[in-house]
Amino acid sequence: MCDKSRDDALTLNQQEFSFICRYVHEHAGIVLSESKREMVYRRFSRIIRERRLSSFSDYCRLLQKNPEQEQNYFINAITTNLTSFFREQHHFDYLRQHELPALIRNGSHEKYMRIWSSACSTGEEPYSIAITLMQAMQGLLSQWDVKILATDIDSNVLAKAKQGIYAKDKLDDLSSEIKRQYFKQGTRENSGKVRVAQCLSKLITFKQLNLLHQWPMKGLFDVIFCRNVIIYFDKDTQQDLFARYYDYLKPGGLLILGHSENLGSFQSDFDNVGRTIFRKPVISAQAQVV
């Protein structure tokens, strides 16, 4: 009762809201508009209660005083993690029907494939990619060096993704064949839950990564998923990220965006091969001119 009374008494003034917006933008690149004020109030009221603070000003001072201690917790609270298995199904259909068969044909000697899920949230996206790989490659997978890198800024969702345990109703839209082959049903105290099959888990490496910071990966990727995250950044940050994604793609590699996202001025640097599916040209326009 005391905690609820304290929440009811909290107010978020314009100065506090502006500070939080600046802090989010500086540390995560996310742009918060006035329409997000209620979300900020709701999520940070919980933090204030857990920290036993009395006001938003107290929390703003805590962020200034102990940024390293609070930053990870702050980012986890503000990031949005709405996802599902095979969200935007057409992306996975394109992989299975077109891209993966072409990579298998063209890589028959090298047998090396890398895919990056760059905002993997609670793991549904990379596990959907892994299922698609299993379906497309079937008996060939053991002959290839195939890895999926799954990254996210939020350490909490990464922990859930690594665990690979989901509520059973998360699979409601999946076929009975996919459920049977790639998920194990929980029993007793785990009734109502499922765990992803080990054949999927062993394909994926989960790592925490802030897209605004240095990217430690040294190799290039055949496919990069960057879905439903670009929309949270300002235009300059978006263009910087597209330039970096371009550099991390193999010639001919795919960049896959969310349904409401576009490449902006980078549209001319990629070929559009499907709904929000873009291919880095094998030979750049500059190279052709030379």
Structural overview:
Strand 1, helix 7 (124-137) and strand 2 (145-152) form a beta-alpha-beta unit. It contains twelve helices and ten strands. The protein has a seven-stranded mixed beta sheet with strand order 6-2-1-7-8-10-9. The protein has a three-stranded antiparallel beta sheet with strand order 3-5-4. Helix 6 (89-106) packs across helix 7 (124-137). With 290 residues, the protein is of the alpha/beta class. The protein is globular, with a radius of gyration of 21 Å. It folds into two domains: 2-78, Chemotaxis Receptor Methyltransferase Cher, domain 1 (Orthogonal Bundle); 89-289, Vaccinia Virus protein VP39 (Rossmann fold). It catalyses: L-glutamyl-[protein] + S-adenosyl-L-methionine = [protein]-L-glutamate 5-O-methyl ester + S-adenosyl-L-homocysteine. It holds the Pfam family CheR.
Short précis:
Helix content is 45%, strand content 18%. With 290 residues, it is α/β, with parallel strands linked by helices.
Question: What secondary-structure arrangement, pairings included, does this model have?
Answer:
Layout: H1 2-9, H2 14-28, H3 37-50, H4 56-65, H5 67-78, H6 89-106, E1 112-117, H7 124-137, E2 145-152, H8 155-163, E3 165-167, H9 176-182, E4 183-185, E5 193-196, H10 198-201, E6 204-208, E7 221-226, H11 235-248, E8 249-257, E9 271-274, E10 277-279, H12 285-289
Parallel strand pairs: 1-2, 1-7, 2-6, 7-8
Antiparallel strand pairs: 3-5, 4-5, 8-10, 9-10
Helix pairs in contact: 4-5, 6-7
Keywords: Methyltransferase, S-adenosyl-L-methionine, Transferase
Enzyme class: transferase
GO molecular function, one term: protein-glutamate O-methyltransferase activity
